[in-house]
Structure formats: C-alpha cells, structure tokens
Amino acid sequence: MGNSIHIFLPIGLGDFIAITPLIKKIQDVFKNFNYKIYLSSTQAKLVELVDFPIYRINLNIVNELKDYLLINQMLKDDNIIDFSGYLSYTKQINLLNYYYFGGLTEIFSFWGLGKSICTHPNIILKTQLEEECTNIIKKYNLPTEYIVIHRFSLDPTRQPPQAVWNFFLKKLNKKLNLPIVELGSKYDINKGSLKISTKYYYDLRGKTSIKEVFCIIKNANLFIGVDSFLAHLANAFKIKGIVFLGKYMGRFSQYLPYCGFYRKKSNLFVIRYAKEPISNLTIKELVPHLENLWAWLEANKNGNELYNPYDLKGNTDFLNFIYNSNSFILWGAGNLGIYCYNFLRKLNKKVLYFVDSNKQGYLLGNRIISPQLFWKEFDKRSKILICTSYGWNTIANFLKSKGLIHFVDFI
Does the pLDDT at position 391 exceed 50? Predict the structure, then answer.
C-alpha cells in the first residue's frame, strides 16, 4: 500500500463546490499521506480563487474519461478515493438512484468515504480577491443592493420557460423593487432576454470571468435560479436563494442537492414541480407557489423562521418499478445507458436491446435499434427504462402518445 492518496474530483463545477467538505475531512483524518488531486482545467481556475491549502498541492488536470481510466490502471499500489463516479461506484449507489441518498455532498461521501456527510461547502475567497470585489462591482456599475438570477442549464429540462420567468420576475419586482443582475455563459445570450425594464436589469451573460461571478454572487442580496454551479456557489457564500426544481431524469421528484446553509428552510425557498421536468412548468402552475413565497420573503425580512413547503421524503416509485419487472428495453446508448445496463445485470434483470436515434450496431452484446424500428418490435410485457437526461421529456411524450403509461410501462 503506497503512502499517497489520489483524489479524483467530479467534473461538474457544482459538484466541485459540494466536494470541498469531504476533502477537508480526508485531510484531517489522514495527516501523514501525500495527496494528489485530479480535477478539470475549469476547476483549476476555481482553485486559484479559493483559500483552501490542500488544493494548492499536487494538482493534476484531467479532462477526458479515457485519462481517468488510464490513471486508475497505473495506481494499483496507492490509495484511490474516487468522487468522480467514472471509475467506480458502490453496489448501492449509481446514476440511476443517486438522489435517493440525499444531496451531492451526501452522495459523494457515500461514494468516497462510505458514510454520509452533509456539511457546509468550504469556499473562502483569497484575501486579495476580497479586495478586488469592490472594483469588480464598480466595473459593471452595479447598485449596492441587487438580486442575481441564473435562468439556463446545460440540460434544458432543468430550466423554466421564458414566459414563466417574465411573469415571475414582474411579480417579484413589485414585492422587492430590487435591480436584477443576470449571470450566464456566452451561449445563453441567444436564448432570449427578459421583458423587464432596463432600469432594473443588468444583463451580464457572457461578459463575466469566473472571478467576477464569485464577487457578484457574494455581494448579492438574493439568488434566484435553476439547480446549477451558481446555485451551489450562492449556497457556499450563504446568499439566501429561490431555486426551481422539477422532476429530474424521470424519477427524482423530491431531491435537494445542497448541504449546509440551503438545508435550513429560512435560507432556501424551492419552487418544486414534482410531476414533470421544470421545463414544463406553466404560469398557471406557478401561481399557487407565490403566496407561500411572499410569506417566506416577509418572514426573512422580519428575521422569522417559516415553513417552506418542500418535502425531502424519498420516492419509492422507481425502485418498485425496477424490482417488480424482469425484462427491460434501454432507451439511450450513451454512458448512462451503460450504467443502466450494469445496474440491471447486477439485479439479474434481462436487457433486450437499446434504442437510440443517433447510434446503431451493438452495445455490450445487445442490439441498438432506431425509435422507428422499436415500435415494430415492442412487447408490452417488457418495461422501458429511459437512460438519458437530455431529451427525456420528448421521449416520454412520444411513449405517452403511443398509449404507454409512466411508472407502468416506462420510467
């Protein structure tokens, strides 16, 4: 057994925030080891801003899955703690069921440490950056008080429609009368601007560096957005938040990805759409949430605690669907499809074939067929497992149009 500990970080930036308490825990427990941390090049930019000693030693940038696998083969004699989910996962936890085990910090602690940890992320800005933040706020001519919003996700099923945003922010502006600063990537610019007064709207999408994003969020009065890196960052900086969460991947309807500050009901209000992805949320279905939200905002203004009506109970529908079925068709032949296949095989379930509109041939010894051919071969005695987050809703609507029932014929 070697005297080095190799820590593989998850690729996502939000995951990076969630993982910080676990690295600190490892550092406290294993004091006489050398550490090597494997992370992405984007994460390395975050490390430059954070005052966290362990991140400043033996950093190795790894961006490709093949590189993770190659490094894993080379480290037979050393200790590996894998938070990436690429190299290994426990028999209990995988990409099909991970949100049944809590938020990201809890899931990663199960993965890497074998026990649940749900403590606040350790994100402390370097002293020099703290001093620069004042100039960054002045650079964009931002007011002393403002709300930060983040509307878009890499997965479009995780973002509310623009009409919902326009309606929601118009109502919110009447309650708070605070300027809105929108953050996002350069790719978000073409996705539409908000229909609100320019007097109250600072559109900084695609204009800010990671350093500037840190400063702008840290000085905000409130964060409003989708589940994303910026939401995790707002949580880390203890900026009170309103987050939209819908059903995710067709199975997770009551999850809460955050630990620490956002686990307290007075610090986070969740606009929960448990029956569908949040991309399907309508203005009519948003309205019932607003009365509770106005009460939450009022209670926060007065420094009072308030019940926030989101439920953290686990959802057993998915597990019942899996354990009560014997043969499956996997819709999606990508990485998640492989995870689905391995998960089902461990349960001794039969996989008939994969369905994918972009691939053909064989995967893991099973045929990959097109959606058109699928409908000719489909036997309703088999169950369909949708193994992709992208386009999940489109696939589900297609199956519903053919008379299939969610949680009965597919999931």
Answer: yes
Residue 96: is its pLDDT beyond 90?
Answer: no
Residues in Cβ contact with 98 at an 8 Å cutoff, skipping those fewer than 6 apart: 107
Q: How far apart are CA 298 and CA 187, in angstroms?
A: 35
Written out in words, the top-level CATH class of the domain with range 127-301 is alpha beta
Q: What is the side-by-side order of every strand in the sheet holding 350-355?
A: 361-363, 366-369, 350-355, 327-331, 383-386
Q: Which amino acid is at 398?
A: F
Average pLDDT over the chain, rounded to whole?
83
Is 0.90 surpassed by the pTM of this model?
no
**DSSP states of 23-66 as a string?**
HHHHHHH-TTSEEEEEE-HHHHHHHTTB--GGGGSSEEE---HH
pLDDT for the residue 234: 96
Instruction: Provide the CATH number for the domain formed by 317-401 in this structure.
Output: 3.40.50.20
DSSP code of residue 158: G
Domain ranges in the chain are 4-113, 127-301, 317-401
Distance of CA 355 to the CA centre of its chain: 26
Helices (H), 87-202: 104-113, 127-139, 162-176
Q: Tell me the one-letter amino acid at 217.
A: I
Q: Using an 8 Å Cβ cutoff, are 334 and 388 in contact? A: yes
Neighbours of 272 (CB within 10 A): 22
pLDDT in tens, 190-243: 888 888 776 789 999 999 998 999 999 999 999 999 999 999 999 999 999 999
Do 4-113 and 317-401 show the same overall fold?
A: yes
Taking residue 149's Cβ as centre, other Cβ atoms within 10 Å add up to 24
Q: Which of 140, 101, 131 is nearest to 319 (CA)?
A: 101
Question: pLDDT per residue over 257-287, tens digit each?
Answer: 999 999 888 899 999 998 899 999 999 999 9
SS3 content of the chain, % helix, strand, coil (to 5): 40, 20, 40
Classify domain 4-113 by CATH number.
3.40.50
Token pair for residue 200? 């109250």
**Block residue for tokens 């350069």:** 186
